[in-house]
Design a protein that fits this description.
Shape: globular
Radius of gyration: 16 Å
Strand order of the largest sheet: 2-5-1-6
CATH topology: Alpha-Beta Plaits
Number of domains: 1
CATH superfamily: Dimeric alpha+beta barrel
Largest sheet: 4 strands, antiparallel
Amino acid sequence: MQYMFLIYSAEGSGPQQGTPEFQEMMNGYMSFTNGVRDAGIFEAGAPLEGIDTATTVRVRGGAAQTTDGPFAETKEVLGGYYILDCKDLDEALAHAAKIPTAAYGSIEVRPVMQM
């Protein structure tokens, strides 16, 4: 079953770019990604640009309305995602705990609905 791993953190809460801690985190991401690829369960994944690049679209009364920014005011923002093909939720949760941002943010794990 496919699971989506939504990676959230408060902006500025993790290691800052240009620091040794940031490089260590990026090495952790490379290691995690290589591990799930080698295991044959990687389906997709990517980091997202910052929330200052987000645009939200709503259709009300047949008219599209756009606003700058994410759909909700929140302290934690979506920074990236993975889609992995795991045998069950327990395996998915075990992988979620290995995603580096779990150390200072949160990882939401959701099954992908099969249509």
